[in-house]
Design brief:
243 residues; alpha/beta; Metallo-beta-lactamase, Chain A; six-stranded mixed β-sheet; 14 strands; 21% helix; globular; metal ion binding
Length: 243
């Protein structure tokens, strides 16, 4: 499998295209403002989207899910513990979503959307949602997923949100890769002070889920540069403290 990245104009969230044999692909974290660029990549390379996946339910990772799900006629997959966020993207983002109203123009999310030329009221809740943890054969902790020839493992990693999920796969020429969303960044971790965040759960996730990954695992986070588990174990102060 191979990876391509599109960086969203809102909060610089990373949207990752995972491409496997015969052009089958899945899109991880369809953030705000990525739909047209993703569509251009799909059409230029003759790809066949099979699903959209979310590492968690924060709207900077899910904003374009509805339009891309409809455009490609594919499901949007999110952990059941985060599915409720899709109906209330501003409120479930806490202070980042705005203090005075769902579309508070002074809120960081509304300001970032405005800077990208995206109206806050244009958000549409995805209509075709599949929830990890509830579909037949799925468990909430470790789920093997197959979408056409795309195969990955979804591993529950709560702390940043209740339903935060790592997606684990093997990439041609790179070996094991973890799409970590906002669980783990290069040199840092996702914040736990937003609604649904839990510092104790994050420490457990870092200790029992993240640190257990092979050290050569490439880390593709939801924001910022790539890294690897060995480097993070040696230098990331949050991961070191948790282990």
């Amino acid at each position: 499998m191979q990876l391509s990245t599109v960086v969203a104009p809102v909060f610089a969230a990373r949207c990752t295209l995972v491409v496997a044999d015969h052009g089958d692909c899945v899109l991880v974290d369809p953030g705000a403002g990525v739909a047209d660029q993703v569509t251009e990549l799909v059409e230029r390379h003759g790809l066949r989207p099979r699903a959209l996946l979310a590492t968690h339910g924060h709207v900077d990772h899910t904003w374009d899910a509805a339009v891309l799900s409809a455009r490609f006629d594919v499901p949007f997959v999110v952990h059941t513990a985060d599915a409720y966020r899709l109906a209330d993207p501003f409120g479930t983002l806490g202070v980042l979503g705005g203090r005075t109203s769902p579309h508070d123009p002074s809120g960081p999310l509304a300001q970032a959307l405005a800077a990208a030329g995206i109206g806050p009221s244009t958000y549409v809740e995805p209509a075709r949602v599949e929830e990890l943890g509830t579909a037949p054969g799925m468990r909430s902790d470790d789920v093997a997923l197959a979408f056409g020839t795309v195969k990955l493992l979804a591993r529950h990693a709560p702390g940043h949100t209740e339903g935060s999920t790592l997606y684990l796969l093997d990439v041609d020429g790179a070996g094991p890769v973890a799409l970590t969303g906002d669980v783990l960044f290069a040199g840092s971790i996702g914040r736990t002070d937003l609604p649904g965040g839990d510092d104790a759960e994050m420490r457990r996730t870092l200790r029992e889920v993240v640190a257990a990954l092979p050290p050569e695992t490439v880390v593709v986070p939801g924001h910022g540069p790539t890294s690897d588990i060995g480097t993070e174990l040696a230098t990331n102060p949050y991961l070191r403290a948790a282990t």
